[in-house]
Write a structure and sequence with these properties.
The structure is a single chain. It is built from 22 helices and four strands. It has 594 residues and is mainly α. The chain is globular, with a radius of gyration of 27 Å. The protein has four domains: 127 residues, A middle domain of Talin 1, CATH 1.20.1420.20; 111 residues; 145 residues, Orthogonal Bundle (Cytochrome Bc1 Complex, Chain D, domain 2); 154 residues, Cytochrome c-like domain (Cytochrome Bc1 Complex, Chain D, domain 2, Orthogonal Bundle), CATH 1.10.760.10.
């Protein structure tokens, strides 16, 4: 009996220790996300306390930085699942314009708070600062409730992960969302590390690619730590050595885990191996509706129409008359010329890569290429034609008839919209993505010189060019969703070295909003070396003049009175060597004609 008692006691202790333990359940992506959202809210509360208690500027700056780092852990989800409040959490400190309703929403969020804190915190801004912090906390509460309510499935998480890598590349390391504090590189570390947990949890089939992605992220973080200075950070190496391989591995990881693509008409091909691959961008994300989808047959018909004088009233001008392929589809003139030979007010922009924008013309008056072609053809100063009147002649032409039947096999009678769609389709075929810049980041044939690489690093860093001309399209279509094309007020002079702003009111002519006075679309810089003169009025004849203008701070920086300049007016302080490198880089954006 004495021998049995110790055994029974031992069994009882074993049962108490192990028998009542619950089976461990790994925390889900959604649960971890909600926990991280609370962490951000707690950091915002702490920031408010530090400001309220009149702590030192250094302590306030540190509290703000901690809050930003915490936010970067959830950025992948906030931007993807709650884009509306995201705009007022970490959007630009500029009014959000709703031009169709002729109203605007004042900015809120981190970037507004940053402007109140950096480069120096003025205590008289305390009340406004506390108000902005309270608004930020309220917007985060809205995000939290939305993220609680939705179902977060692996396909959406994987897609959001890819988008976050692209966001880091286009908006993160460029300083787009930390324009004054310049904390982009430390924040990039937090953004990347947040993705490690996602990939781990998505790896249900034990893919070995997960460890490769983790290793790349760890090395990328170490690269950031080794050089966290915003102005000297080597973005070219960082993108090519880390971000592009991470993107490629995510596609491979997705296949190995049998995670389907999210079905949506996205501007980015979900199977693209990087943001720089030739097949990355989907022109059909920018069309008016499904019947306008791009086909090679439509483009072939459109090419014939593009070079045909029959679309003009007097049959003496075609689209190609002003968009000459030998000049990267521009005309080389300061401003375009009318049918009678008089100068028109605006410079002729290139139509290359125009299909990857959500607005056409300098004043953005048309939303797509179909409307753009009709606008030009019917313009009394430009072609003075009428597509409706051109239909009989085109439909009776045997060459056209054959092309039309191939382009629109379901239609028996030629219609006006088909001609518009065909011309637009030809323009959509002009996106080559084969420049020296492209092939370098695609890792195929060419390598940027040390000067060109310096120029790229300046473009995406110290010179702040990439905060408006977003990589890799180099236009104002905002990545990584590409649903919005931006305009800017830069204070372009009326004449070179002049002190009076150009009288062209730009987008204000259409929408009478003060923020749009002298505002013009941010155009692509692709093929920029072949498209001089520059600006909406052709006021600058060389890239060197353009760089000098921006280096001085745009219109305000050169002494022009600009009421609403959106371009920062502080001088960039670029050295002559740096300015030369910037120009050298921009020349790498020229398409290879082969």
């Amino acid at each position: 009996m004495k021998l049995l008692l110790p055994k029974i006691a031992l069994l009882l202790v074993t049962f108490l220790l192990f028998g009542c333990q619950k089976e461990y359940t790994p925390i889900t992506i959604q649960a971890e996300l909600l926990s991280n959202v609370e962490e951000v809210r707690n950091q915002v509360t702490q920031l408010s306390k530090v400001v309220s208690s009149n702590k030192s500027e250094t302590e306030i700056h540190n509290a703000f930085s901690k809050t930003r780092i915490a936010y970067k852990k959830i950025e992948w989800a906030v931007e993807y699942f709650t884009p509306d409040p995201a705009r007022f959490i970490n959007g630009p400190a500029l009014d959000e314009l709703e031009v169709e309703e002729n109203k605007f929403l004042s900015p809120n969020g981190f970037q507004v708070i940053e402007e109140l804190l950096f480069p120096k915190y003025e205590t008289q801004n305390k009340t406004e600062l506390l108000r902005e912090i309270a608004v930020l906390k309220g917007n985060l509460a809205q995000v939290r409730e939305h993220l609680k309510a939705i179902t977060i499935t692996p396909d959406y998480v994987l897609d959001a992960t890819k988008m976050e890598v692209y966001r880091i590349l286009t908006l993160g390391i460029t300083g787009f969302d930390s324009p004054i504090a310049l904390q982009s590189i430390p924040e990039t570390q937090a953004s990347l590390l947040s993705l490690k947990s996602l990939v781990y949890k998505l790896n249900t089939k034990k893919s070995k690619t997960e460890s490769q992605i983790t290793s790349l992220i760890d090395k990328a973080v170490l690269f950031c730590k080794s050089n966290s200075d915003f102005n000297t950070f080597d973005r070219a190496t960082f993108i090519k050595t880390y971000l592009n391989p991470i993107s490629e591995k995510l596609v491979q990881f997705q296949k190995e885990n049998s995670i389907p693509n999210v079905i949506k008409n996205n501007a980015i091909n979900p199977n693209a191996t990087s943001l720089f691959a030739k097949n990355t961008f989907n022109v059909n994300a920018f069309i008016p509706s499904d019947e306008y989808k791009y086909t090679a047959e439509k483009a072939k018909l459109g090419e014939m129409l593009f070079y045909d004088n029959a679309l003009s009233k007097d049959q003496n001008r075609s689209c190609a008359s002003c968009h000459n392929p030998e000049k990267a589809f521009t005309d080389g003139l300061k401003t375009n010329q009318s049918l009678t030979g008089t100068s028109l007010p605006r410079n002729t922009p290139t139509v290359t890569y125009a299909s990857l924008q959500n607005a056409q013309f300098w004043d953005m008056r048309q939303t797509d290429l179909e409307k753009q072609s009709k606008d030009v053809i019917q313009n009394k100063e430009e072609m003075h034609g009428d597509l409706k009147n051109s239909l009989p002649k085109i439909s009776q032409n045997p060459k056209y008839r054959s092309l039309i039947n191939k382009a629109f096999p379901q239609k028996t009678e030629v219609q006006e919209w088909q001609l518009q769609n065909a011309i637009a389709s030809y323009i959509r075929s002009l996106n080559k993505f084969n420049s020296k810049f492209d092939t370098h980041f695609q890792g195929t044939s060419t390598t940027l010189s040390s000067e060109e690489q310096l120029g790229f690093n300046l473009f995406a860093g110290k010179a702040k060019c990439a905060t408006c001309h977003f990589i890799p399209l180099f236009n104002g279509t905002v990545p990584p969703i590409y649903k919005k094309t931006e305009q800017e007020v830069i204070g372009t002079p009326q004449v070179k070295n002049g002190k009076i702003i150009s009288p062209d009111l730009g987008r204000f002519t259409q929408y009478k909003m003060a923020q749009l006075k002298n505002a013009f679309k941010t155009p692509t810089l692709r093929n920029i070396a072949q498209t001089a003169p520059y600006m909406h009025n052709g006021v600058f004849t060389t890239l060197e003049e353009v760089v000098d203008f921006y280096n001085k701070g745009g219109g305000i920086g050169t002494g022009i009175n600009v009421e609403n300049q959106t371009l920062p007016s502080d001088a960039l302080n670029l050295t002559s060597t740096e300015q030369k490198a910037l120009v050298a880089f921009m020349k790498t954006l020229s398409d290879n004609k082969n």
